[in-house]
Amino acid sequence: xxxxxxxxxLTVSTLGLGCMPMAGIGSAMYGTADRKESFATIxxxxxxxxxxxxxxxxxxxxxxxxxxxxxxxxxxxxLVIATKFGFAIQDGEAKGTDSRxxxxxxxxxxxxxxxxxxxxxxxxxxxxxxxxxxxxxxxxMARLVEEGKVRxxxxxxxxxxxxxxxxxxxxxxxxxxxxxxxERTIEEEILPLVQDLGIGFVPYSPLGRxxxxxxxxxxxxxxxxxxxxxxxxxxxxxxxxNLELVSVVEAVAARHKRSAAQVALAWLLHQGDxxxxxxxxxxxxxxxxxxxxxDLALTGEDLQQLDDAAPVGGTAxxxxxxxxxxxxxx
Length: 330
Hints:
Blueprint: E1 3-6, E2 10-13, E3 17-18, H1 25-29, H2 35-47, E4 52-54, H3 63-72, E5 80-85, E6 87-90, E7 93-97, H4 101-115, E8 120-125, H5 134-146, E9 150-156, H6 160-169, E10 174-178, H7 190-197, E11 200-204, H8 236-256, H9 260-269, H10 284-291, H11 300-309, H12 322-325
């Protein structure tokens, strides 16, 4: 697989792998995950040339990092491992944000131990903490860089002001936020800003939590207990309206004899070479399908058709419920 560079310094595979669905919160959100198949999926990703793996301490909590750490044992030198901190974890649950300097350090120590590595390649603040100045948090992260425990710093779902202030404190290598054909509001202010600052961009949920794959045609296709049963965009009239976009993605896919997922990911890759999507997967079949998007060249006509079908703000329904929405773009 070809590579891209985040922040002009960190070279990674053109597509990374989001590990969240494999254990912990991901298995609760997207149905059950098979541990053996999760390991096989990571093995297959490495065989396909994927070098960029994304996890977080809150996934589980902790279980996802432990799984990834076990899976990469003995092969760590060839990989770029990204993880995230920033939640107050008590009694096995996230209880709001905590980006105090002391937690920045404590979280990093825990991440290193669970992943079984000596240095975290990319260490993200998972959500901006409104109670802690971003300069204090990034300053603590920077000290970990100085000590050799972290290589590069990142933010997730930060506002333009927080990005500027953080980057002035220590260079930020990557911003991770939701971005896809059905979530384009990032284009209004954030995407131009990170490009101007030389910060790489890592889209999570690049397939609209599975909606853009075309595999979910009705609400009843979602298994019991699946997080998406409470996702505003999967509800009633919103669901029906959003299927209109899927039909366009499928039409483009049919022209290329590719999958809808590959078209959605290829569209993201066409938005700039500073962008590295991290589709999540817990099965080899979906992994292989997603990674094939790296060599799909869309035409100008394809891109225009997709843009017209998915204008900024055109998706029906908010992307999260009220509580989760209150934690983004701080």
